[in-house]
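Problem: given the chain below (546 residues), write out its structure.
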Amino acid sequence: MFIKSITVSNYRSLKNDNYTLDFAIPNGKPGSGLTVVVGPNNVGKSNLFHAMDFVFNKTGTENVKHKQRPEADAIVQLEFQDKDIESSIDEYVQENKKEAFKKLVYIKDSNKTFSIQRIYDTKAQYINIWHEKDSSFKNVAGIDGPIEAWLTFLPLWANTSTEEVATYSAKSIINKLLGKIVEEIQSDKGYIDLHKQFEKIFGGDEKSVLGSKTSTISNEVSTLIHEQFADVGIKFQADPPKIDQYIKQIRTLVHDGDETEITEKGNGLQRAIMIALIQVYAKSLNKGKSKKPFFLFIDEPELYLNPQSQKILLKSLRKIAANEQVFLVTHSPYFVGWKDYTNGAKVGRAKKESESTIINCLNPSTDYSSLISNDVQEWQRPYILDTTAKELLFADKVLFLEGQEDVGLTKKWLSETSKEIKFDLFGYGVGGFGNYSAYLKLAKDLGLTKAAAIYDNGTNEKAKMDSDKKIQPDYLLCQLDANDIRDKLRPCYKCTKCKAQKYNECSAKTKYKTGCFDESGNPKTASLEYKDFCAKFESIITYMEK
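Solution.
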């Protein structure tokens, strides 16, 4: 069973009523179950997942409500869908709740659906289940325990300590991972023999070691008590420890030449082991008759990991996300995989809008999706959607340029003129003016407030620019007087230098494109084309700074 969507009202930075976001549903393809949320700092990216944790685990009850609306209830709804919810209920819900839960499965958009809601108001914090017959959420007595046993939301926050994951606390990964094994231990002959031996040594019988050693003390105390209270005596007895008391003593040891506890290792190794434990736990869930619903969230998976390690981790998470839902909040472009997006993953960018967090998701039906799906075929232009280009996901304002020469010369010019800009230049260019529309739609869908593009001079470029302006009228598109960023010259192919294939030394070159910079990339300061370039760039700076 999978989380189809979340609907939030007045929860932390999610101020708006009934704000809904759909999640990626795994389809068997690697990465298809990934929902990745990116964006600048301090925009509330993680709060959507804090809201999920609030529903599942009743966590985060302090400062739940949005500070601008403390008088209103904080409400979070989760909608689950699957083709066979009943089988999951049969296997993982306690017996006296199974039929009640099954009756609350309903059909929505031809899918079996089950919805829950948690409310935090001034009086209580409670959970409800959707009753389709009455078109309302209602509280069902004793629901929290069965829901927690059935649905597992496993969050690894940026500030999660190793003790929370790698020690045997009630909700730790070790606890969940070894839970079934612990049950089996109690029927193991070795465990039974251990208890017999415990009784032999620590039992209350005088034949036990403890009984025989303490018999003198017991008899003397009993004699003294007997003088005041007839027929009263004492003995010393140790009850055998319960299984969970044994298990709580488990330590996670790391062997790297010496054996030491995980808590003594560096943060990077600690976090890597925590994530590995989660992966093993996720794999173990598929061994039942019906797959146990499992939802993994990792906040800033890049913490303490170098880029190479981030790539390795993503590869592993992609395997989990073929069949499970995995949610990531990240500042790293390495966790956004275009192949995953093509397979069905969701990529969203968070931003603040009127004091409320909004997450804008990429639209799989747009031009840029076609560009993304063809990125493997773009073998001659692998830079179009590479890691540098993915920085667009984290930008607030961006200038799109046609090609890598435009980007390179603009950066050179900015450095030489000591000009500082408060916006980003996109990647290595869009790969031709025909691609501007795809990237402008990408910027719009990501919720970028400011975007600009510079077109070369030409009739086709002018027509394309006029068409692209309709995508987002608030974006600034402008056209240069020059028909390229720099002068382009052709060799004559006839002189002795050309015949010797020394084309750069040809003295009879002819210019076929006039640029703002000369052939070597130096500013043509006296030319109208260069002056026009400077004026257009200043207008872009003014636009970006408004």
